[in-house]
Amino acid sequence: MNSHIYVKSNILLKMTEFSVVLIEPKYEGNVGSVARLMKNFGFKDLVLVNPPQLDKSARAMAVHAKDVLDNALILDSFEKAVEGFDFLVATTDEIATDSNCLRSPVFPEDLATALDAEGKVGLVFGREDSGMHNEEIAACDLIVSIPTSREYTAMNLSHSVAVILYELTRLKMREDSQKLNKFRKMGKLEKDKLLEKFDEFADLLYDNEYEARMAKKTFRQVTGRSFISGSESFTLMGLFRRSKNMIEHPEVYGRGEKKKEKEE
């Protein structure tokens, strides 16, 4: 029975597209535990950023998932990890405040939209003691937070990974296998171009650098949650481009031209 579920989850989740990324884990036992539960849910790609030396404890906790440890990609910086993915999901137990509005997360059940993403998706987990830094979170496309008691919000690293992978698997297996996307999702190049056009538009609208930065971050989070199609991305790029032109050159792109077009 378990093996049947394992195969089914692999087919539906396309798990070769997902990787678990651990930033500077402190304890090798946690790394081993993560490898074990990854194999439980059918995930196999593990990326480790500056991990401790993986010896007996890690292999003992991995049990039958030693192959996940052996095949893990080890990097010396998070920047190098970012380069290898089309979409990054950050995890945090801190909710946005007035002084830290960059941390505006969704709940694990809202990750359903990410399951049909094209390309490589990295599920990023921070350090056991300090989590993810603001600049690391800012480099990600989507933020997810596991709801916990306010009395003690911090979860064990491997437990956090287990909740996210379970939720991804559960959500996808509940979907009808025939409910597939009817359109192509926006690719990495289209996403980068869309963000570039919005950034140019935001820079034109805002004199305050902080407000511009918050607008750009908000738009990045919205596009991450919505998974815009390729055709929709082109429409939005055209909208931002035309709006920018109308502001910079009203004599050419203003209402007079639009009125003239209607008369003709």
In words, what does this structure look like?
- The protein has 264 residues and is α/β, with parallel strands linked by helices.
- It folds into two domains: 2-174, Alpha/beta knot (3-Layer(aba) Sandwich), CATH 3.40.1280.10; 188-263, no CATH class.
- 51% of the residues lie in helices and 10% in strands.
- It is built from twelve helices and six strands.
- The chain has helices at 2-13, 28-41, 56-62, 66-70, 78-83, 134-138, 157-174, 188-205, 209-226, 230-248, 250-253, 255-263; strands at residues 18-23, 45-49, 73-75, 87-91, 121-125, 142-144.
- A six-stranded parallel β-sheet has the order 3-2-1-5-4-6.
- Strand 1 (18-23), helix 2 (28-41) and strand 2 form a beta-alpha-beta unit.
- Helix 1 crosses helix 7 (157-174).
- The longest helix has 19 residues, at 230-248.
- The chain is elongated.
- It starts with a helix and ends with a helix.
- The model is unreliable at 1-16, 97-101 and 176-181 (pLDDT under 50).
Overview features:
264 residues, elongated, Alpha/beta knot, six-stranded parallel β-sheet, 2 domains, 12 helices, alpha/beta
